[in-house]
Amino acid sequence: MRKRRKITVVGAGNVGATAAQWIAAKEMADVVLVDVVEGVSQGKGLDLYEATPVLGCDIRIVGANDYEETRGSDVVIVTAGLPRKPGMSREDLLAKNAEIVGQVVEQAAPRSPDSILIVVSNPLDLMAYVALKKSGFPSERVVGMAGILDTARCRAFVAMELGVSVEDVSALVLGGHGDSMLPLPRYTSVGGIPLSQWMNAETIERIVQRTRDGGIEIVNHLKTGSAYYAPSAAAAQMAEAILKDKKRVLPCSAYLTGQYGLEDVFVGVPIILGAGGVERIVEVDLNDEEREALHASARAVKETMKHLP
Q: How far is the C-alpha of 216 from the C-alpha of 222, rounded, in Å?
C-alpha cells in the first residue's frame, strides 16, 4: 500500500495555520499542525479539517502539542518563533528564535529522518543555519523560504505600477532576507520584455527599495503583527515542488559551499527544488556591482551569525 504523504507544520500562528490552509486547498498531503500552546493547533486543525468537505479535499489534518504525530513526515515546515514588531529588526529576533527553532528541529528531525526542512522563521537565513546544524541533515535537505516571498513582492509592485497581470512579471531577488537583499532589475521582465523597456531608472529603484522594505511595510500597517498570507503561500509552493518532484527553479535560501564565491552561509539564490530538496544551485551571471552587492549581503548574514547562541 502506498504511504500517504505527510507535511508537518510547526507553529500554529498566522503563518503556520495559513500554510496548512494552502496545503489543504491543494490537497497536497496530510497535515500535522504542532504548537506549544495547548488547544491552538487542535482547534485550528479541527476547524481546517471541517472545511475539507466544502473544499472537496480528502486529506487528514490533526493538531498536536508534541511531535509523536509527526513521525514519518516528508516535509517539515518550521514557522515557530516570535513575530516582528514595529521598530524591530530581524536581527533583534535572533537569540530567542534560534532557541525556539533549535528545540523544534531537535524534536522533529529524529522522528522524520528522511524529511526535508523548510525554514520560515526569522531571521530566516540564520534560522536555516540553526536548523542545518541541529538536524545533522545534509545541506540539500534544509532550505529557507525567502526569495520566493521577496520575488513575489517585487512582481506584485511591478504589476501594480504598470497595470499588468502579475502572471506576466518575472523577477529575481538574491541575497539575505533582510535590508541587504538584492533585487535584480536586469533579470526582471514583463511578458519577456526587459523591465528597463517598461519604466525609467528612478521608478525601478523605487520598486527595488519597496521590495527591500516589503516586510516592514506590512508590519507598519498591521501594528501588532507581520505578513503571513504571502510567506505561507511561498512555503506551500516549496512543499508542493518537493512532494511532486516538480524541479521548480525558485529563489530560496540555500547553503552555499563555494557557489558565487561564498561558503558556509545561507543566502537567497536560484535553486532547482524537487524530491531531493535543493537538487542544484543555479549560478547566474552577475556584473561586478551585483556580485559585490551579493557578497555584501552574505557578509551581513555571516556577521550576524557570530551572535548565534
A: 10
Say how many Å lie between the first and final Cα of the chain, rounded: 45
For 89-129, how does the pLDDT look when each residue is reduced to its tens digit (9 = 90+)? Answer: 656 678 889 999 999 999 999 999 999 999 999 899 999 99
Cα distance between residue 61 and residue 23, in whole Å: 10
The number of folded domains in the chain is: 2
Cα distance between residue 47 and residue 51, in whole Å: 7
Q: Which region holds residue 246: left if phi is over 0, alpha if psi is between -120 and 50, else beta?
A: alpha
- Tell me, yes or no, if 177 is annotated catalytic: yes
Structural domain span for residue 53: 6-144
Question: H-helix or E-strand containing 299?
Answer: helix 288-305
Q: Which of 177, 221, 295, 307 is catalytic?
A: 177
The whole-angstrom separation of Cα 214 and Cα 31 is 29
* Global model pTM greater than 0.90: yes
